[in-house]
Amino acid sequence: MDRYFIILLRAAALAAILVGLFGQFVVIPGMAADEVALVPQYAPFATPYVTVAVLIVACVQVALGAVWALLGILDRDTLFTPRAFRWVDVIIGSTVVATLLTAGIAAHLTVADIPTPNGNMDVIGAMGAAMVTTVVGAALAMLLVLMRGLLRKATNLQTEMAEVI
């Protein structure tokens, strides 16, 4: 694999992690405070939703950290080893956790009585976004599980080839 490509991907992962940190500590709490200032009835929901949003961003950061580790394994040309499976499992696990969190948000928005100044369209839009995110997250997790199976088969084939040679 081209070393420059790996360096570029690592730089992108690091940048995304840093942007996520900024979002966790500045953007998400700031936006929640602004919404509560505009609509004081949102105050009881602000802290739980901020917490869940920060956790979802943390799941993305964990997955990016695992990608960083996989790029290191790829750079050393040792991708087809059991060590790679641990990092793939971390990515799958963080995807599943983030998906469950968004499913929890969708469920809460479905049953909660959230007061809105402009009618229910705000809640319906947020619920739709949470449902779409949940479906996309579930699809991504299933795709990652399939890709893990392909990695397993490729690892087994490489092991068999090494024994033959």
Provide an overview of this structure.
The chain has helices spanning 3-38, 43-75, 82-111, 121-164. The chain has 165 residues and is an all-alpha fold. α2 (43-75) packs antiparallel against α3 (82-111). The two termini are 23 Å apart. The mean pLDDT is 91.
Compile the SSE list and pairings:
Elements: H1 3-38, H2 43-75, H3 82-111, H4 121-164
Helix pairs in contact: 1-2, 2-3, 3-4
DSSP helical segment count: 4
> Which radius of gyration do the C-alpha atoms yield?
20 Å
**Structural class by secondary-structure content:** mainly alpha
Q: Mind summarizing the main beta sheet?
A: none
Strand content: under 5%
Distance, first to last CA: 23 Å
Work out the helicity level: over 70%
What is the string of SSEs from the N terminus onward? HHHH
The count of β-strands is 0
Shape: elongated
Unreliable residue stretches: none
Q: Taking all residues together, what is the mean pLDDT? A: 91
In short:
87% of the residues lie in helices and 0% in strands. It is an all-alpha fold and 165 residues long.
Task: State the main characteristics.
4 helices; mainly alpha; 165 residues; single chain; 0% strand
